[in-house]
Amino acid sequence: MATAANAAPEEETGDEAEVKPKKSIVKIILGVVGLLVLLAGTVFGTLFFSGYFNPKPPVDPESAEAAEKGANPKDKKDAKPSKLSKKSPEITRFDYQYMQIEKDFLVNLMNSKKVMSVSLALMTHYDERVFENVKKHELALRSAVLDVLRQVPESDINKPEFRVELARKIRNAMNSLLEKYEDFGGIEEVLYTNMVIQ
């Protein structure tokens, strides 16, 4: 009996030994799963509160292009001017700005005794930096405009599209010069406020 009594406790000890490793493995698995859930919750919570899941604002293609080139869009000197938009319920419209060039342009027509006097205004839908650049490079721009005006032959002034073509040439000359010095033109239209040919 002593042998049987001694054997019984050994069997119970063996069962307990098998149960303890199973319980410890279950505890480890539950601990790892709990840690993973806690980690996933922390990551999700951080992303949620940082606004990662909020809808992204539309990207301005010009800002994206500047960002790709490594330019800081907030740096006024390097960034292209931004377009000014007008609030309209139907469609997006751009807000236009105008600038009158103070001094008139006075030139002789090519191979002619006639004189042309022109007053110009500029229009853009970009921000004020376009006009700041125009003022900054006023002397070079006046020279470029005078060069365009000096090339006008007297025979062209009677053409129906004369004023439109001349405005386009002046705009292109001014934008080319601004692109050379400031990497951006931005002049959308050249408008005549006065034109006299005598």
What report would you give on this structure?
The chain is α+β, with helices and mostly antiparallel strands. It folds into 2 domains: 55 residues; 122 residues, Band 7 domain (Tetrahydropterin Synthase, Chain A), CATH 3.30.479. The chain has 5 helices and 6 strands. Strands 3, 4, 5 and 6 form a 4-stranded antiparallel β-sheet that branches. Strands 1-2 form a two-stranded antiparallel ribbon. The radius of gyration is 38 Å and the shape is rod-shaped. The N and C termini lie far apart (140 Å). The relative contact order is 0.11. The N terminus is likely disordered.
Q: Into which percent range does the helicity of residues fall? A: 40-55%
| Biggest β-sheet strands, sense, barrel | 4 strands, antiparallel
| Strand-residue proportion | 15-25%
* Secondary structure category: alpha+beta
Give the distance, in angstroms, between the N- and C-terminal Cα atoms: 140 Å
Give the overall shape: rod-shaped
CATH architecture classification name of the largest domain: 2-Layer Sandwich
Which residue ranges are poorly predicted, with pLDDT under 50 across at least 5 consecutive positions?
Answer: 1-12
Question: How do the helices and strands follow one another from N- to C-terminus?
Answer: HHEEEEEHHHE
Q: What is the mean predicted local confidence, pLDDT?
A: 81
Identify the CATH class of the largest domain: Alpha Beta
